Amino acid sequence: MAKRSFSLSHFSSFFLPRGDTLFYLIALFSILSLLLHHLSPVSAAENRHFEGFDADEVDDFAEPIDPIISSTPPPPLTTTLSVSDPVESHHGPPDPAPPVTSQPSDPKPASTSFDYWDEDEFEGIPQSLTSASPLITESVTATPTSSDSDPNLKSEPEPEPEIPKSISSYTVEIVCVSFLIMFVINYFTGKKENENLALAWASKFATKDSIFEKNFSLLGVGETDDSPLLLKEGQNVFKFYASGRRFCQGLLATMELKSRHDLISRLYNMVVPCKDEITFEVYMNDDAMDHVVLAVARKKLAKTMQKEITDLQRFASLVSPPSGRKWVAEELAVVSESKEVAGDMINETVLDQVFGDKAYEKFGKGFISVHFSDQHLGSHKKMLIFKFALPDAKNMADMTRLVALVPYYIDLVGRYKLSSHARTKTDGARTKIAQEIYKELQNARQEALQRKKAEQRKKIEEAEAKLSAEALRKKEAKERARQMKKAMPKMKMTRAG
């Protein structure tokens, strides 16, 4: 019992100290708390080099840095650990920890603060420690005085000053707009010019007391007096119709003018000039025109017409100038079916009016061609065709003699009759041409029939190629039986008497 009581009192005195023991324990705890208080900033800065230590945690401990800092770096920070003087006791104060200094410029800082650490307890401790906070030092030294260059702030690029564009930079647009304006202006002006030209011709030759008003009873496209004289089929195409005259069913005049409303065509006509033309087509009655095939034109154009126009190619040929009489000007050539027709159509009157040397030099500037034919291809077979060039609107009277040829030749051709000798020749030529045409039609029909048979034969062969062997065998047997039956002699059955 005595031993038991002794031990209990001993433990009770250890856990419940009294007097000097309690005082020493309080002093010891205060020293340890001061030591830990001074070591906590240094250890937090150094522990960021430990394995698994996040750099963001160091930033949490560090104080925020003011972005506006002078460009000169601050002096290196020095950290010194000091311990307050503890209350003296007979045990004596513990050895103070050596001071810890952190120099950013030292390549190998002192590691006295880690002398008390067990190497086995902490892993990943670097052998040579760098500056305590190199990131902070760099940011402080690299931070300019202005807050605009803060790396954490995204500076917006300053807008570049707008440079005014010069007129030369809009060259393409100016050219396009100018061309469009010119095109529109030229369209209306060219359209007006063509209309004025057509009206100038109509007022000269189709109004009251004019040539056509004296020779035709009905002018214009209508049946009344108020009907318009011209029919506009396009910006450069105008037509005039007249009827009510003997020997012909009617007359159609077509004016094909320059495309003045089209700027591109106008520019092209400046390089390749062309003329305003008018063509008169006279539809003769069937009983009012004999065998007449004749053409008068400039030499080059006459040769072209003789090669390209079908009726001139079949019936007519170039006529040499006759001896002992006047003939057309040297610039002109005559293509006719016979010399008799050419002599009768090119008489003294027309030579003096237009086709003679002197008259053609003065009045024949607008003459292009004349073509008479009773074998014309088309819906109407017997026709007289006159083609002239139109002068300017102010000089429309210059073509008066050319227009006067139209009614004159209507009467001349309508009354003309060939001689028996000339008719025999023309009839023989027409019969020969008719036979040739008939042969050509027969050959064309034969070729069409042969082509059709070949197509049918090809279809049958293709169908047979698709048949099976059995069907083909049956067909061959059927064809063989038909051939045998055809080869057997025919027997005639007669009745017994």
Query: SSE order in H/E notation?
Result: HHHHHHEEEEHEEHHEEHHHEEHHH
What is the general shape? flat
Q: Give the C-alpha Rg.
A: 62 Å
Which whole number gives the mean pLDDT?
Answer: 76
Number of helices: 15
DSSP, total strands: 10
Strand content: 5-15%
Structure described in brief:
Residues 102-114, 140-150 have a biased composition (Polar residues). With 497 residues, the protein is α+β, with helices and mostly antiparallel strands. The protein contains 15 helices and ten strands.
Structure description:
Residues 483-497 have a biased composition (Basic residues). Keywords: Membrane, Transmembrane, Transmembrane helix. Its main location: membrane. Pfam families: CCDC47. Residues 64-115, 140-164, 469-497 are annotated as: Disordered. This protein is an alpha+beta fold and 497 residues long. Among the domains are: 176-418, no CATH class; 424-480. Helices cover 45% and strands 12% of the residues. It has 15 helices and 10 strands. It has helices at 2-15, 20-46, 55-61, 134-142, 171-205, 211-215, 263-271, 299-308, 310-315, 339-345, 348-355, 357-363, 400-415, 420-466, 469-487, and strands at 218-219, 230-234, 237-243, 248-256, 277-284, 293-298, 317-318, 332-336, 367-373, 383-389. Strands 1, 2, 3, 4, 5, 6, 7, 8, 9 and 10 form a 10-stranded antiparallel beta sheet that branches. β3 and β4 (248-256) form a beta hairpin. α11 packs parallel to α12. The longest helix is centred in the C-terminal third of the chain and has 47 residues, at 420-466. The relative contact order is 0.06. Residues 1-16, 44-93, 96-114 and 128-149 have low confidence and may be disordered.
